[in-house]
């Protein structure tokens, strides 16, 4: 089945001989080709055949190409999303949307849950996602008792935007066997009423595993993937790194690839240690199978293994060095210790499996770097450097951390969209001065670290242009500025979502810039990011998206 027929976004199954696409009259943002002149691009059989003057493009055509007049609009390399969760978004897009500004208060959340309860049979689970307590009028999490008002006969569970915590109603707690006597699991916490000791419904990090929520059916999973993947071309994303893929999601991706139904190139990072789990996730399978990073094809490829070391700043569970503001003694949660992490990281590196490590607070970043330094002592620094291992988010690194990151050749996967979407809660939880030290992008770039931008969607809106806006302006959604001295330039922000994203995936020969021989992954923008005021970056529209020269989205 064609992608357009299946999902209504575009067509992927087009492998005709000598298929040619010619884009003319455009402003070409080639990224890594500073001397490029011209306004036309010729794509033949999925690869860029020529970039330059319009007459030169036409003279090189082998047949009758599809011609699109860009009418002066900008065309850039397709965006590379270095850290996103389409397989998680797939489930969330079936849930009740509790994101801001669709909800602005606890009462709004309750109203939305009530609407879904009315459509759900008695006893059926109601799921929600995306609420942000820092943006609610009450500035608090909803509780089980709030949800109980409209769901006496349906179990309910709603997840916070960071996905590190969620709230269950009383029936969901009862069905899951969670009571006042239930101990906190390792790597997680059950929030309790200080007067009675009863669970409030808020479950943090690994405590979420206690919820006995049934899996979606195969048909629901298929629909969720269609909705999630269908968003990518609308954001101009032509390559996406899915950063926490379990066995079921990997199988779904393989089915979609086999049927030519992927609207973007998918790069899979399988589960390692996550949220304090004491098992090694899919690492034993990967090691036992002999799977190596880079296995796959241009549309679906295995990249490596993902570890999660701490939580989020918004949820006060990131492992920071100093107490959270107004929370004496609270410094977040470090899910795993060095003696557990380092042997797994070393074993992966020895076997040609790249690692990507979620580390937000200083203590987590220290552990991530130390584990890779331990691996380097086993296999050599040169071998580790050659692998382009990654630190995900890397929100609060110290100067010493940055130097060690550079020396190990690590790529920082900076979720720059956090500054806009979550920055106000960071000011509340860290204090303004410390919040201004988050994401030291300028410092990292200036000492030679490659920084790839991303949204961590569904934590934030998946638009790369929003991520670029945040990196360039460092403004929160309320207009607060977090550290002017650490801003990226517009060109650096563009590269972080194109050339650097490609580098992070060892794919600089495939995508990330507009030059002959590379894939025809292109995005047409309503305006040139280099020409508009920085404040306008997030308002630029994606008008067309091409993967391998095939139009997968047109506004």
List keywords for this structure.
555 residues, TIM Barrel, 2 domains, six-stranded mixed β-sheet, globular
Describe this structure in words.
This protein has 555 residues and is of the alpha/beta class. It folds into two domains: 81-85 and 218-507, Alpha-Beta Barrel (TIM Barrel); 95-210, Diaminopimelate Epimerase, Chain A, domain 1 (Roll), CATH 3.10.310.70. Helix content is 31%, strand content 21%. It has 19 helices and 23 strands. The strands form four sheets. An eight-stranded parallel beta sheet has the order 7-14-15-16-17-18-19-20. A six-stranded mixed beta sheet has the order 8-9-10-11-13-12. A five-stranded mixed beta sheet has the order 2-6-21-22-23, with no helix packed on it. Strand 16, helix 10 and strand 17 form a beta-alpha-beta unit. Helix 10 crosses helix 11 and helix 17 (464-473) runs antiparallel to helix 18. The model is unreliable at 1-16 (pLDDT under 50).
Topology:
Blueprint: H1 3-7, E1 20-24, E2 27-28, E3 40-44, E4 47-52, H2 54-59, E5 66-69, E6 74-77, E7 79-84, H3 86-92, E8 96-97, H4 106-118, E9 126-131, H5 144-148, E10 156-160, E11 165-168, H6 170-175, E12 188-192, E13 199-205, H7 218-234, E14 237-245, H8 247-258, E15 265-271, H9 283-289, E16 300-308, H10 338-350, E17 354-359, H11 362-379, H12 381-387, E18 390-393, H13 399-407, E19 411-414, H14 417-430, H15 432-435, H16 441-446, E20 451-453, H17 464-473, H18 490-496, H19 499-504, E21 522-525, E22 542-547, E23 550-554
Parallel strand pairs: 1-5, 2-6, 7-14, 8-9, 9-10, 14-15, 15-16, 16-17, 17-18, 18-19, 19-20
Antiparallel strand pairs: 1-3, 3-4, 6-21, 10-11, 11-13, 12-13, 21-22, 22-23
């Amino acid at each position: 089945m064609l992608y357009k027929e299946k999902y209504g976004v575009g067509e992927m199954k087009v492998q005709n001989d000598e298929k040619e696409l010619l884009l003319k009259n455009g402003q070409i943002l080639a990224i890594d080709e500073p001397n490029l002149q011209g306004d036309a691009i010729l794509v033949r059989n999925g690869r860029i055949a020529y970039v330059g003057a319009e007459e030169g493009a036409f003279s090189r055509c082998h047949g009758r190409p599809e011609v699109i007049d860009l009418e002066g609009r900008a065309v850039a390399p397709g965006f590379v999303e270095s850290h996103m969760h389409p397989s998680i978004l797939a489930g969330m897009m079936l849930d009740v949307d509790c994101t801001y500004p669709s909800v602005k208060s606890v009462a709004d959340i309750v109203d939305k849950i009530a609407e879904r309860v009315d459509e759900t049979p008695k006893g059926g689970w109601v799921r929600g996602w995306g609420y942000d307590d820092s943006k609610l009028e009450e500035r608090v999490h909803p509780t089980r008792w709030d949800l109980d008002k409209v769901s006496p006969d349906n179990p309910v569970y709603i997840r916070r935007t960071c996905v590190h915590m969620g709230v269950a109603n009383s029936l969901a707690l009862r069905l899951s066997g969670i009571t006042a006597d239930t101990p906190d699991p390792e790597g997680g916490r059950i929030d309790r009423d200080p007067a009675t000791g009863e669970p409030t419904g808020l479950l943090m990090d690994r405590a979420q595993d206690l919820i006995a929520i049934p899996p979606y059916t195969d048909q629901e999973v298929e629909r969720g993937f269609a909705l999630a993947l269908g968003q990518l071309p609308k954001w101009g994303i032509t390559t996406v790194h899915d950063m926490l893929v379990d066995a079921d999601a990997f199988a779904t991706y393989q089915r979609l690839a086999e049927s030519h139904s992927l609207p973007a190139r998918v790069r899979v990072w399988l589960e390692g240690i996550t949220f304090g789990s004491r098992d090694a996730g899919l690492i034993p399978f990967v090691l036992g199978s002999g799977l190596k990073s880079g296995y796959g094809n241009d549309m679906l490829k295995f990249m490596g293994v993902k570890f999660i070391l701490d939580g989020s700043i918004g949820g006060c569970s990131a492992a920071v060095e100093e107490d959270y503001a107004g929370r004496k003694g609270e410094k977040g949660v470090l899910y795993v210790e060095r003696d557990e992490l380092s042997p797994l990281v070393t074993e992966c590196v020895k076997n040609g499996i790249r690692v990507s490590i979620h580390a937000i607070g200083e203590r987590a970043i220290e552990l991530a770097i130390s584990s890779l330094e331990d691996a380097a002592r086993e296999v050599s620094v040169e071998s580790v450097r050659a692998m382009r291992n990654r630190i995900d988010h890397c929100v609060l690194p110290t100067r010493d951390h940055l130097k060690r990151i550079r020396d190990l050749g690590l790529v920082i996967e900076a979720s720059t969209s956090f500054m806009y979407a979550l920055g106000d809660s960071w000011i509340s939880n860290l204090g303004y001065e410390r919040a201004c030290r988050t994401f030291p992008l300028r410092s990292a770039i200036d000492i030679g670290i490659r920084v790839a931008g991303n949204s961590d969607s569904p934590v934030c809106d998946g638009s790369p242009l929003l991520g670029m806006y945040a990196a360039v302006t460092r403004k929160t959604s309320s207009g607060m500025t977090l550290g002017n001295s650490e801003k990226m330039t517009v060109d650096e922000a563009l590269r972080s979502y194109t050339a650097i994203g490609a580098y992070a995936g060892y794919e600089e020969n495939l995508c990330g810039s507009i030059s002959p021989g590379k894939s025809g992954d292109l995005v047409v923008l309503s305006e040139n990011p280099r020409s508009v005021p920085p404040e306008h970056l997030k308002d630029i529209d994606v008008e067309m998206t091409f993967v391998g020269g095939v139009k997968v989205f047109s506004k």
